[in-house]
Amino acid sequence: MALKASDLNVGDTYTECLVEDLKRTQIVQYAGASGDYNPLHTDEVFTVEVAKYPSVFAHGMLTMGMTGRMLTNYVGDGRLNKYGVRFTSQVWPGDTLNSTATVESVEDGVVNLKVETTNQDGAVVLSGYAEARVD
Amino acid sequence: MAVDKFPVEASHIMMFARSVADDNQIYYDEAYAADTEPGKIIAPPTFAQSSAQFDPDYFLRPKIGEPWFGSGKEPTGIKRESSGGGGGGGGGGLHAEQHFEYHRHISPGDVLTATVKPGKTWEKEGKRSGKLVFSETVTEYRDQNGELVITARGVGVRTERPVDQ
Fold it and tell me: Domains, chain B, ranges and CATH?
């Protein structure tokens, strides 16, 4: 269901839990679907021994994809005009992510949202915006 | 990534939706999708990124008969001068930003092309990873009628060393 402009107020929020205890297998699943097989995401040996990270970590685009799910659940199917993010911190196996959209403005049939995804420690892992058509 | 032919397919959308743990049936079920506002299966918002599957030269996919830099017997299959340290991990750096503008939502049956234009590059001193070099690319996805359907802007960053945790 699409949002109605008349029901929206600046400052309204919508939150979803994106994932609890992110599994390495989900990262592998994303690699397979997206075609991004960077070993940093799926190959623990390479990532620890060669790239010198503590473990594999999620594709930024996996976090953006899951955050996109929160957005489409909020604004409705096919309603997004724009969606953009910065990846501000890495996401690791075991992380639990929550994502929130906050209404920044509603005018001319369009809602502008601030988008933020945080991990279990409250660190912001993704920060961005979305614009969607509303009724 | 430049792509000559990116056929948007229902099974690919299904696999992509599964991977981002999205159970919205508009990504899986044609009959369900027919009753939604778009009236058909559409792709999730970040699906265009999987055009990488159709880029013959995409360097983050192992290719038949070519060496691959991931681990096998050894931690890496290719010895690189930089040994892939520097946070890039031999993987071409990290993804810093991604932006999509949707001119229309894509569906199975669409056959897209993607053209890439280089954008700005800039540098910044990072607290956790030394010097950061950012570079931007703009990808335009067009449909079978030549209409622009998605404009994507990505920013990659190469770090001097792995990001401190």
Answer: 3-159 (3.10.129.10)
**Mean pLDDT confidence for A75-104:** 98
Q: How many contacts does A have with B, using Cβ atoms within 8 A?
A: 172
Confidence of residue B84 (pLDDT cuts 50, 70, 90): very low
* Six token digits for residue B104: 């229309």
Please return the burial class of B79, using the count of CB atoms within 10 Å of its CB with bins 0-12, 13-18 and 19+.
Answer: exposed
- Within-domain flag for A48: no
The two three-digit tokens of residue B35, written as one number:
């009753």
Task: Name the pLDDT band for B92 (thresholds 50, 70, 90).
Answer: low
Q: Tell me, rounded to whole angstroms, the distance of Cα B16 from its chain centroid.
A: 12
User: What are the tokens at B1?
Assistant: 């990534």
Residues present in chain A in total: 135
Closest residue in B to A48 (Cα) is B75
* Average pLDDT of span B113-120: 93
Domain presence at residue A106 = yes
